[in-house]
What does this fold into?
Amino acid sequence: MKQDMIVILDLGSTENAALARMVRELGVYSEIHPHDISPQELRELPNVKGVILNGGENRVVDGVPVEVSSELYECGFPVMAIDHPTARCEKRLEVMPDTAALRDFVFDICGAQANWNMKNFIDDQVEQIRAQVGDKKVLLALSGGVDSSVVAALLIRAVGRQLTCVHVNHGLMRKNESESVIEVFQNQLHANLIYVDATDRFLGKLAGVSDPEEKRKIIGGEFIRVFEEEAKKLEGIAFLGQGTIYPDIIESGTKTAKMVKSHHNVGGLPEDLQFELVEPLKQLFKDEVRACGLELGLPASMVYRQPFPGPGLGVRCLGAITRERLEAVRESDAILREEFARAGLDKKIWQYFTVVPDFKSVGVKNNARCFEYMVILRAVNTVDAMSATVPRVDWDVLERIAQRILAEVENVNRVCYDMSPKPPATIEFE
Ligand code: XMP
It folds into this structure.
């Protein structure tokens, strides 16, 4: 590991992640560890230059007041305490530090180097992945989402064709998405890629199923079965790559770093596949994952991809999925994305997509009465997807999208714009 590190000890603050971000924004690597880390564990972490005790408002975990071991002060690292009544530290603050105070501690008191950047991170990870994997083989479920794409690119850099990527097209992908996975990973990065077009199999299982939870279960379960079948055809796989990222770990609880592996199970992978995990992004925040992807040469369209539910367009084709309405969702979504990008809204609006309900309404086409589906346009802005607002989209843009959908998408005679914030609505319709 090349980078210097500032360790943040979690004493129940809700602002650990924000603090780690602030330190990293100074160009210094930072990790959050539980308050009861032993002095030996702390000493064994690579390149520690200083420790921050982050108490925040509630220095309590599980109802028990939190204290750090007094031996931690004897480890020889400078200590900064935030809202933590101890006289034994180099710096003490009542509230979260501003950038100047943090700079003072990180650079002047700890003497850390600002050497946290994606190039160094990638070099480190390549070294670590090679040490972990040796000459064995790694398997990765490559959905084409940001995290799995970046893990794939990093693993390709580290172990090349010892990695096998499996891309399952469940038939619920957006327009051209599977094609771009093949183009980038097979044609450009020369990955060992197994492409499985399981469209018929998924749509067959989903035929006539209208309950959203049931649809999700079928899609998730079938995905695992297809992946498992492919995995069983391969020989000598010892490792499974996973796109676990730092927020997954932080959100898993206060004793973060230790709990991860048992907790994290992306996409519910089969338990009887006994692989050791390779999770090279587990210390990165989402924007760092994107920066890492760009540094590895992935296209911006892949790295800045919007969140996309695992069950894909299946949750946006309401009720029982039919090929007809699925096509209407896919084509209208492509038009919406194209027009938002043309208007520069792709960088201003957090998530946008289309939905096709399973009922028809009356319209007029070619001077005759028609009875067809509607497309609902959905656009939201949010910070954390827990709540969301509806952006005011320029009328001309909306009008153009509606005109194009009505002219280009079959079986559609009506376009609506969803005005509902979350809550009370959710972002997706289901
Ligand atoms: P809701 O509809 O709950 O969506 O307001 C919040 C965010 O989560 C995304 N979403 C999913 N993401 N797997 C995912 O990875 C899923 O099954 C899933 N369902 C919803 C949704 O797109 C929105 O960004």
